[in-house]
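It would be a great kindness if you could assist me with a short task in structural biology. The full record is reproduced below for your convenience:
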Amino acid sequence: WDETHFGKMGSYYINRTFFFDVHPPLGKMLIGLAGYLSGYDGTFPFQKPGDRYEQHNYVGMRGVRLCRLFCAFLGSCLVPFAYLTVLELSKSLPAALLTAFILIFDTGCITLSQYILLDPILMFFLMGAVLSMVKCNNCADRPFSASWWFWLSLTGVNLAGAMGVKFVGLFVVLLVGLNTIYDLWDLLGNLSLSLVTFGKHLLARVLCLIVLPLALYTATFAVHFAVLNRSGPGDGFFSSAFQSQLIGNNLHNVSIPE
């Protein structure tokens, strides 16, 4: 059922047809982009679960046959992400290998990664945020180095990605937020650290973990509204003034008073 739901939304992006959904737009935009780049023309109706795809080029969006394509590729990335995260936390190769093998043979992950779903995209950004956070923590002995800035910024990018796919991504925002508060509290208690240096640490985290994710999250909506410029099933959820901007709407280019 979900594949029918989100596959149709991917087609909406390819056809630039406006729609409304309860989730933020990033996941569906990426699905549409994957379909567009793989040659899918957005014509499959996705009317009900179980419909045969026949001659439609769905491989790029579904990734059933080629595991490197989009959802299947993102799902396969969970294994090295988990491996590296556990290795960084425990410094134990057996523990990291065990974690990787558990995910490799997990039926849930394998199943979710086969279809046109938001779940593998969400999990990719969630685990990417945790890995980046752990990597940044391990660079604490060399703050403001190139690697420290890279992992801190990448954490912010992954936070924006997680929030941009589903709102449950806020849970990883909470995790990173608590970790950041702990780090700043520890730095504040370091008497050998000047207040100026502490201020730099605080500013770096505000820029990379608050400003950057919010900017990227907002940018996804800017792209969403720029791409979907044709009338569709989501028109009725918005004002008459907004509908007048959609090509094909009955109110298109009609002058709407404030």
Summary: The chain has eleven helices and no strands.
